Predict the structure.
Amino acid sequence: MAPRIILNPQQFSITINRLCHQLIEVHDDFSDSVIIGLQPRGILLAKRIKNTLQEILKKDKILYGELDATFYRDDFRKKDLVPNQTNINFIIEDKNVVLIDDVLFTGRTIRAGLDAMMAFGRPKDVELMVLVDRRFSRNLPIQAKYVGCTVDTISSEKVKVDWKENEGEDHIWLITND
Amino acid sequence: MSRKLSVKHLLGIKQLTPDDIELILSTADQFKEVINRPIKKVPSLRDITIANLFFENSTRTRISFELAERRLSADTVNFAASNSSVKKGETLIDTVNNILAMKVDMVVMRHPNPGACVFLSKHVDAKIVNAGDGAHEHPTQALLDAYSIREKHGTVKGKKIVIVGDILHSRVALSNIFCLQKLGAEVMVCGPRTLMPRFISSLGVKVEYDLKKALEWCDVANMLRIQLERQDIKFFPTLREYTMQYGLNMEIMNSLGKEITIMHPGPINRGVEITSEVADSAQSIILDQVENGVAVRMAVLYLLAGRSDD
């Protein structure tokens, strides 16, 4: 079956804006909050959210970091895992952290991400934001607080997120393998 | 870039492909970030036990490996030949198999005999990391040297690197030659004729006997220690004479008209192959090499332990 569009570019931008406003409701001007994107694909959403927030809040600096959880994963030795860059130049001690990934599937990446994050201090509070929540496919008790869209999928299906920066246009696709 | 090493053991640089080396160096980048965190530890190897077998003295390499193992959360056991059953006549295979019987997954070994690691890898069922075998290879030293050059100069490719000193007895020299050439660097060796292996130019390296000329040619100079412990006969009249011809001092450095990077694998004999002034100068990256050693060894252990099909 041909890939199906879940979100087109217009809906995509509405969703990003909604997520930003939801964040502002909770985190106000982000003076005590930080954004952390999970490598490799979560940082694309995290960057977009950070930039949009800075536009809305007219603020030029929101603390933003990129976290790689490869060394904390539980599927080490089951696949060949190549690490990406971690780039967090601040301590998250007593901060409100918004952890961001693109697709929430089994929850295992988020579990590894939570562990990895603790190397940078003890946060006051951690919330999870994802662009796509694949319902009913979780292996661990992990839920996102901020969700772009929810899809029901079976495990043979794939959700792919395209980004303006990489693929030229913002899209979310559902790919079904026959 | 490939996602896994083409080898099961790290026996020498000779067996690695340029892709393997790139993979190790880029993985080391991530570990360098880890060891500069407030909490310098990741849980990747928490289910792995590593035995460090040192049949020859070592300070830097042993501590560096131990730190690398602990920062990956591996369990470690240490073994030094001086106080072991080797003294009572046990063979290498027996010693290692006895240790492996206690469920050890990896062995880091330094041994005075060239090829000891290759031999061991054929007879025991564990992953072997060569931490120096006689005057043969010292692969992790070469990798950390390449990493340090890449960090300082952006790339190794096209750089001119001279290795100065006791080429004949140095495992660092051989591993460095293989590693730097695989990464596309030009390599020269420089030292007294008596300490130059015959046929060394068949490795594709330039040979120079005049230190000043070698330094004028290079971007990076890697100064080696005179390995008196491996010299059973006299290769030069006196250390003083060696220093006069091959010792690196500020006078030569200032006469070059350009800045070159100075490296040394340690331990340094200050005042012999290099003066304190040069070793502690801004052009020296000797302590960066030591720091990078931990990151590079973490990368090697991580990539070997993490291979998915074994």
